[in-house]
Amino acid sequence: MLSLLVLIPFVWLILLVLPAGNGVAFVRRVGFVGTVILSIIQMALVLIDPFTRWSLAPDFVTGMFKFALHADSLSTVVLLSIGLVVFTALFVGRYTLKNAVRFDQFVLLTVVVLMGMNATVLVTDMFSLYVFIELTAVASFMLIALNTDDKFGIEGSFKYLILSTVATVLMLSSIALMFLTTGDVKFDVVSVIAKHNDTAFYIKLATALFLCGTFIKAGVVPFHGWVPDAYSAAPSAVSVLLGGIVTKVAGVYVMIRLMTTVFGLTIFTHNVIMLFGTVSILVGAFAALGQNDMKRMLAYSSISQIGYIILGLGCGTPLAVAGAVFHFFNHAVFKSLLFVNSAAVEHELGNFDMSKMGGLSQKMPVTSFTNIVALLSTAGVPPLSGFWSKVIIIIALWLSGQKVYAGIAVIASVVTLAYFLLMQRKTFYGQLVPGMENVKEAGMDILIPEVVLTVIIIVTGILLPFVLNNFVLLTANLVR
Amino acid sequence: MENSILLLPILIPLVVAGMVLVFLNDKFKLLNVIMFLTAIAANTAVAVLLFSAEMDYTLPWAGFGMDFALKVFKFNSFILLAITFFAVAVGLYSISFMWKKTGISQYLMYFLVTLGFVNGAVLADNLILLLFFWEGLLLPLFGFIVVGNKAAFKTAIKAFIIVGISDLCMMVGIGMTGFLADTLTLSEIHLPLSTMGSIAFVLLIIGATAKAGSMPFHSWIPDAAVDAPLPFMALLPASMEKLLGIYFLARIALDLYQLTPDSWLSTLLMILGGVTILLAVMMALVQKDYKKLLSYHAISQVGYMVLGIGTCVPAGIIGGVFHMLNHAMYKCALFFTAGAVEKQAGTTDLQKLGGLLRSMPITFGVFVIAAASISGVPPFNGFFSKELVYDGTFIRGQSNPVFFVFYAMALLGSFFTAASFLKLGHAVYIDSARVERKDIKDPDWWMLTPMVAIACICILFGVYNELPIKNFIEPVLMNVSGGGAGASAEVTEDTVHHGFSGWPSNWFLVLMTGIVIFGAIINHVFGVKKGGGSGLNAAEHIHYAPGLVQAYNAAEKRLFDPYDIGLSLTNVFARILYWFDRFIDWIYDKLAGEIADAVSLRLRLAHNGDYSLYIIWAIVGTVIVVLMIM
After folding, report:
1. Higher-confidence position of B357 and B366
2. What is the CB neighbour count within 10 angstroms for residue A433?
3. pLDDT tens-digit series, residues B265-305
4. What DSSP designation does A98 have?
5. Residue A209 and residue B604: Cβ atoms within 8 Å?
6. Per-chain mean pLDDT for chain B
7. Is the pTM of this model over 0.80?
8. Do B600 and A211 touch (CB under 8 A)?
9. CB of A224 within 8 A of CB of A217?
10. Which of B599, B613, B617, B622 to mutate to test the interface with A (most CBs of A within 10 A)?
């Protein structure tokens, strides 16, 4: 059953590619609708009954391909995020990529990304994990450079490619080292050995290398160089996908999975992760402060929020990990919403330069309102969802004695609020810039994901006990 | 009856207020009026059902002992019924009065909110819940004054601040009481008057009496009388706030902290009451506006109530509570007549009125009855409640002759009350006409019915005063919270059954009252002669009496207004804080801002887009990570 989450996108992809040539229009309609339905089904599966459904029926794929799939509470949250962001990205793509060929390519590549990410989340051995990370990465390179006539897109894609290669080297070396020392790549086998010998030289080296690899993928400072360029150069729909889920699954999810399940959080890894997390928070926040390019600012903000997630992870207590996973989900939601809004603005105005914008809330009231909700959630303002996840992380930090880190996290929230409010002020509030009288509210395609994401932010914030008990606190079991 | 029926007096008005809020535009005024009348009718039904019931109802609310606990027993079921009665009367009157004015929908909404909150405050059994409703009344208070008259903001803010400060005192008092008693449930609190208890008691008294309108928290009422729509005056300062304030005062003095006659707090209350009576009525005497005059009297009569309860003897307490009820009635009726005059004649300035006796006979009749009640003329209700209060002070005077001074203050107050109403009645009704409008007649039946109904009840409660006293008020003393109280007031079945109804037993008091009223009439005639035959100047000889004229001039310049005094004091503080604030601003705006900008600039410039730089960063990072982990 779990394998269906991987197989169905795969089969769908083949179906979509088959009528290439004369079926471009077919792909455009069916592909879009079908993929949207796929993502909705994925979300529904997770929400309705995450676990019992997934242990139905014998998994014939295991027999065929020799890689096992497994889902637990962490996978639930991540799969839900994946479904949500793919759903959003498709709508944004339909709205912004008016060229039919481009849009088809976008849909196809999105299906590949979906498949890759689902598999990343579900596999149980390190090599398959690597394979699917690479699969997702290759699709991402192409996605970032989708507008082949835009040199910035190609440049951003290139930087991502190069740094991804560095990450690949690090990850592969680590896998090789682990294979050498433990004789297997499966999570359960490796974790037993790793946890028993966590001071052995090769185990530590392998941990360090893999950690660095995931840092690069996740965009943690100082491995983050590609993030601002890739996010701002990619077409808007791709930014949604990238910022919302790809970096996070390939980087953060892998980190969480490995650090909790496989390598275990030793005293050394604790400190490293928390230190780099804090540095990311601060660098991301301060660098975002003076930005005029909307998407670049959102990229730095992503770096900062990912810092929060791995700060929670590094702390290591069950509550902290639960908070980190919750923030993972929340970040997928609010960052996607912010990128969706920037796509709407760019589509209407043609550029991202915030110093030339102003007063758009009169013309685009829905976008303006959803933007406010998203940024308040990012800054951690109650009762929105972002507040709860941040508060959980900060409380967990405080309770485990990391008072300095907790304090820095709180102060960085202020800076986050600062730059976001500046952004809102520059783009939406204030006087309407002359020349923008013809701007209209964004079309239905964008309004649907905007509204859906806003509702999710608000509902998750208000119905917190339900969310906590059914999804978030279960992930605390990862470290018990 | 299900216990959750206790939620209805709160929920019905608030829910309908919400619905009116949706249709706030005056275009929907008919719809709003219908919804309003339905709510009032439903509320009346529930209040009648609940009368004399004993039940409680609790919902968990905010944790930490702050429950949504409601309780009804004899005392507050009676208050609930009284509130409902006034809601009906003022409601009907308001609809007619406000119908042609702007803002009627807002007015109705505030009315309903007030009703819901007052019901909640009366029914609340938890100190914090009481506080919530009590303070919540600040909002409709503000709203009422602002409705339809944008220039009334200053007055609204003044009212808000004054009542807010007293509410703040009450909040502290409630906090202390809750702490001392270790519980927040009102019906369980019976505390002795220790030092901290006395402080808490005083703070609570401030809250309760200020709500009722006694000095020194009174100065917003005359201003509101001029600026706010008139039925608001009949609703809040005249009836609801009195009911609420004196209800709470009785609870505090009899229930929460059993006040004994020999404590200094009883003396404090009596002083407060006496001073209020005198000062306010002196101000009332010289007013030249119908509404302002009435509002000063509202303040003055609260003094009687506070004095009565402060005597801590059964006669005085019953007198105080009965006076509250009576006052609510006749003050309401008096404000109704003022509203009728305003609507029909277009003004309430005494210099522009006169001769309305012939044009508005029914209004004049109501006025006469209500004025006689407030002056304490038998056989109207005011006479009986005032006699009980005099009796209370007299009894205290017998144990300590100094206390006779309170009796003297109350009596003098009566003198001036009678004098000012003689002046008012003469100037407005009996004088020759100075009005500008020609076709003045009595107002329509929406406004007339409540007026006349209340006037009839004034007569009823006077002549047949057993009805209210035995059924409503004596049980109060016996059974204030259903848990035994008034023990300090030495109440036994005996004293109660001896009865406080019927004609007062102390003939000396009645004689003195008669002398006072007679004296007031003589004074009035004298003043009229001196003032040239018109009722307007009937009080001028007092106004310009040596010694008093300076005081009156100072009061005219608002020198005695505690609010204005407070404002000028705060000016000094404001200056100091302003400079301190500049400094903090500098830290936040300049210092923090420039540091953040500098850091940000460095960081942004570092990201120069050169991927080889990025790779170097990554490699350096890797080395650091490896070193840290190894």
Report:
1. B366
2. 16
3. 888 888 888 888 888 888 888 888 888 888 888 888 888 88
4. -
5. no
6. 80
7. no
8. no
9. no
10. B622
- Give which of A197, A170, A199 is closest to A183, Cα–Cα: A197
Does residue B290 contact residue B428 with C-beta atoms inside 8 Å?
yes
Q: ipTM score here?
A: 0.81
Look at B607 and A170 and tell me if their CB atoms are within 8 Å: no
A440, A278 contact by CB (below 8 A) = no
Q: Give per-residue pLDDT as tens, A160-189.
A: 999 999 999 999 999 998 888 888 888 888
Helix B445-463 to helix B74-98 angle (10° resolution) is: 150
Interface test with B, best of A162, A177, A223 (most B CBs within 10 A): A223
Distance, in Å, from the CA atom of A245 to the CA atom of B120, rounded to the nearest integer, reads: 51
Surface-to-core class of residue A98, CB atoms within 10 Å of its CB (0-12 exposed, 13-18 middle, 19+ buried) = exposed
Q: What share of chain A is helix, strand, coil (3-state, %, to 5)?
A: 80, 0, 20
Q: How far apart are CA B593 and CA B600, in angstroms?
A: 10
Q: Is B587 on the interface with A (CB under 8 A)?
A: no
pLDDT band at B570 (very low <50, low <70, confident <90, very high): confident
CB proximity under 8 Å: A 100-159 to B: 155, 158-159
- A225 and B600 in contact by Cβ < 8 A? no
In chain B, what residues touch A211 (CB-CB under 8 Å)? 625, 629
User: Does the CB of B600 have a partner CB in chain A at under 8 Å?
Assistant: yes
Enter the tokens of residue B291.
């509404």
Between B622 and B24, where is the model more confident? B622
User: Could you tell me if A417 and A381 are in contact, meaning their C-beta atoms sit under 8 angstroms apart?
Assistant: yes
Tell me how far apart the alpha carbons of residues A76 and A447 are, in angstroms, rounded to a whole number: 27
Q: Where do the H-state alpha helices sit in B124-228?
A: 127-136, 138-146, 153-181, 195-212, 220-227
Q: Which residue's structure tokens are 């005081």?
A: B551
Tokens for A40? Answer: 């909705």
CB of B614 less than 8 A from some CB of A: yes
Rounded to the nearest angstrom, the gap between the alpha carbon of residue B331 and the centroid of all alpha carbons in its chain is 12
CA-wise closest residue to A296 among A337, A254, A245, A338: A338
Residue of chain B whose Cα is closest to the Cα of A270: B629
CA B106, CA B88: separation in Å to the nearest integer? 18
Q: Is residue B318 within 8 Å of residue B328, measured between CB atoms?
A: no
Q: Which residues pair with B257 in a beta bridge?
A: B191
Residues of B in contact with A207 (CB under 8 A): 629
Q: Can you tell me the distance from the alpha carbon of A34 to that of A21, in angstroms, rounded to the nearest whole number?
A: 19
pLDDT in tens, B184-209: 777 777 777 777 778 888 888 888 88
Q: Is A286 on the interface with B (CB under 8 A)?
A: yes
